Amino acid sequence: MRRIGVGIIGCGYISQAYMNAMKLFPVIDLKAVADMRADAAAERGREFGVPALGIGELLKRDDIEIVVNLTVPLAHVDVSLAVLEAGKHVHSEKPLGVTVAEARKVMELAARRGLRVGCAPDTFLGGGHQTARKLIDEGAIGTPVAGTAVFGCPGHERWHPAPAFYYLRGGGPMLDMGPYYITDLIQLLGPIASVMGTAAMPRRQRTVGKGPLEGTSIPVEVATHVAGVLEFVSGAVVSIMTSFDVPKHKHTPIEIYGTAGSLLVPDPNRFGGEVQLARPGGEWETQPLSHGNTEGQLRSIGVADMAAAITAGRAHRASGALALHALEAMEAFQQSSDEGRRVKLETTVERPAMIPAGLPLGQMD
Ligand SMILES: NC(=O)c1ccc[n+]([C@@H]2O[C@H](COP(=O)([O-])OP(=O)(O)OC[C@H]3O[C@@H](n4cnc5c(N)ncnc54)[C@H](O)[C@@H]3O)[C@@H](O)[C@H]2O)c1
User: Fold this and answer.
1) By CB atoms within 10 Å of each CB, which of 34, 56, 67, 361 scores lowest?
2) What are the residues whose beta carbons fall under 8 Å from the beta carbon of 271, sequence distance 6 or more?
3) What are 9-25's pLDDT values in tens digits?
4) Is residue 335 part of a domain?
């Protein structure tokens, strides 16, 4: 098997999870890391035994084919454009950009250069979500007609050491957590036709709860409670809520209702989890998982899939086109709220192919 050289730009909180998970995928050959904070790159480099380089230096390396962009949302587009300009494929953390207009620039440059764009989340490639997909495709719940998707928490400032970005342009619960839910819904139900939403900003300030900045006040620039409806091209209608204003709740993450049954889909921020199915009037029954990739933290499986796709000459699953469609839907909630109307989406995307059932951990084809 040809291994693909990978570099990382952005050595903050989530980079550790990525670098740990990369060890599980033999197709990934991690070559170097970089960050605008040289000390952050040096620390990760030491921890994982890879060189810490300047950003320009990393982009010049001939042995790096994919660069993983783990910077903060506001930097995603500039960093991804620089990666593509350097002639390398890019896999970005989510969102692809903080606006559809900016994210389109990444897709357009990649198309001009014949390069690939991938984007988080890749949790939908986990066994819990692939199992749900297989059940839906096999008709286990008949035709999907409706569903719910719910994320609510009190805010990431309780645990993240530098949470300001969650409340600035490009942050908020829809752009931060919506990608997990909406990407999974697209892989389960297909593309979205239109969106209706209401977006609220109940507090103008939040307080950092942990770390060196504990007690510091941070400004809120974006809506922190977003509720609405996704109308799919298939006709399915999904009610969604994403919120940083929920002290605690008891909703399940994703439920899909079909003409012949209901499906409980596990937390789309995780790879595994329980899939349950019920027929009309029946009890919930836990379904055996048809797919692996369920254990722990597998962030970078999307990068592994892109690397495997490069060697196999096939499409990768956690694609920029999927992320752009999800981003357009997420942006449309605010637009719908501001304008008091249903927003029709301009982009569309095909559902990414299901992973073959029964593959061992680390293998994508
Ligand atoms: N924290 C999480 O649990 C989590 C989970 C999933 C996804 N994410 C996503 O991962 C991304 C990073 O999150 P994080 O929590 O690691 O943030 P972080 O602030 O801890 O780390 C971001 C890193 O990027 C660097 N950076 C910022 N702009 C840069 C630029 N222009 N060039 C080079 N380096 C730059 C910063 O110096 C920092 O080291 C975000 O998009 C976030 O939404 C985070």
Assistant:
1) 56
2) 123, 125, 126, 127, 128, 129, 293, 294, 295, 296, 297, 298, 301
3) 999 999 999 999 999 99
4) no
Is 29 in the same domain as 135?
no
> Cα of 10 to ligand 1 centre, how many Å?
6
163 and 48 housed in the same domain: no
If one residue of 33, 71, 167 were mutated to test the ligand 1 pocket, choosing by the most ligand atoms within 8 A of its CB, it would be: 71
pLDDT class for 293, splitting at 50, 70, 90?
confident
CA dihedral 242, 247, 252, 255 (to 10 degrees): -30
Pairing of strands 217-219, 192-200: unpaired
- Look at strands 343-344 and 192-200 and give their pairing: antiparallel
Q: Look up residue 101 and give its amino acid.
A: A
Predicted confidence (pLDDT) per residue in 59-96, tens digit? 999 999 999 999 999 999 999 999 999 999 999 999 99
**Structure confidence at residue 297 as a pLDDT band (50, 70, 90):** confident
Nearest-10 crossing angle of helices 15-22, 301-312: 50
**Domain-located, residue 353:** no
Neighbouring CB atoms inside 10 A of 331's CB total 23
Whether residues 83 and 183 fall in one domain? no
Q: Which of 72, 169, 327 to mutate to test the pocket of ligand 1 (most atoms within 8 A of CB)?
A: 72
Is the CB of residue 220 less than 8 Å from the CB of residue 206?
yes
This prediction has a pTM of: 0.96
Q: Give yes or no for residue 145 CB within 6 A of ligand 1.
A: no
99 shares its domain with 230: no
Q: Identify the CA nearest to 27 among candidates 1, 62, 64, 61.
A: 1
